[in-house]
Amino acid sequence: MAEEKRKFGKNLFVIITLILSVGILLYFLFTTGGGIETLARIAKTLRRTWLLAAVLAAVACWLLEGFEINLLCRHMKPNWKFSRSFSAGMIGFLYSAVTPFATGGQPMQMYTLSNMGMDTGMAGSVVAVKTLVYQVVMVLYALLMVATKLHYFQTNVTNFAFLTIVGLFTNCIFIALVVLFMLSEKTTDRILRSTLLLLHRFKLCRHPKARYEKIHSQLQVFHDASKMMGNSAPLYLSVMASAAVQITLNSLIPFFIYRSFNMRGASVTAMIAAQVFVAMVSAFVPLPGSSGGAESSFYLFFGLYFKSAIFPAILLWRLITYYANIVFGGIFAYIGSKMNMERDSQ
Prior knowledge:
Elements lengths: L1 H30 L3 H11 L2 H29 L5 H17 L6 H11 L4 H37 L3 H24 L1 H17 L6 H22 L3 H28 L7 H15 L10 H14 L3 H36 L1
Helix pairs in contact: 1-13, 3-4, 3-6, 3-10, 4-5, 4-13, 5-6, 6-7, 6-9, 6-10, 6-11, 7-8, 7-9, 8-9, 10-11, 10-13, 11-12, 12-13
C-alpha cells in the first residue's frame, strides 16, 4: 500500500508538471493576437525536411548523451554496453524534465547505473564527472558566443548584459570551486566559510553552517569522483568534444524550426548563440522543465527572428526538446524497471 502511494505521488507530480507546462504554451497561443491563426497558416506551408532535421538533431543529442556516459563507464568497466549507458542517459533526461532545477536527472542516472550492475561509487563518479565536464563545455561555449556576438545581442535583446552576466558568473563560480576543491580542499574550505560568514553578516545567508555542509558535500562528490576516475586527458577531451557537438546540435534546433517555417535571413551562428543563452538563463528557473522561464527566454532571444510566428516556434521547440524527453525517457524508464524486476526474480 505504501509503495502504491509513493508511485501515485511520483506520477501525480509528473502529471502536474506536464499540465503546468502545456498550460503555459496554450495560454500564449490563445491569448496573443494571431497565435492560433499563425500556427494554422504555418502548418500548411511547413517544410518537413527542415522539421525532420530538428527532430534528428534532438535524437542525436540523446545518442551523444549515451556516448559520453559510455566513455566514462567503459573507463571503469571495459565490458560495459552502450545500450545501458543510453538507457541511463534517457532516464536522466526524463527526471531532469520533471524535477525543479533538473535536480532529479543525475541521482536517477546513478541509481540506474547501479541497478544495471555498476558499483555505487563508480556510478557516482561517472555521473559527477559527466556533469562537471558538460558544465565546463557549456560555460566555454557561452563565453565564445559572448565574445563573438556581444554587440549584436546587446543591441537587439533587452537586459541581455544582466542575464548573461548572472548566468556566466554563477556557472564560473561553481566550476572554479570544484576545480579548487580538487586541488586544495583546505583552501576551498577557508574561502567557502569566509564567504558564507560575510554573506551572513550582511543578512544574505540565514544559516551559514547548514549551507556550508550542503555545498561541501556536493564538492566532495566531485573530489571523490576525480580520484576514482583518474587523470586521463584523452578521456576527458573525448567527453568534452562530444559535449561540444551535443550542445551545437541542440542549439541548431531553433534554426531548423526557423527554416521549416520558410523563413530566411537569420545568421545560423547568431541563432546558435541565442539558444546557448536561453539554456543558461532558463537553468535558473526553479520549476520542472524550467516551465515559464524557458518559454520566456526563448521569446526574448528569438522574437526578433520569428516575429509573429514566435509562439508556434516555442510550441514546436518545446515539443522536440522537452516533451519528447519525457515521453521517450518514460519509455526507457519503464523498460529498465521491467528488466530489473525480471533480473531480481531470477
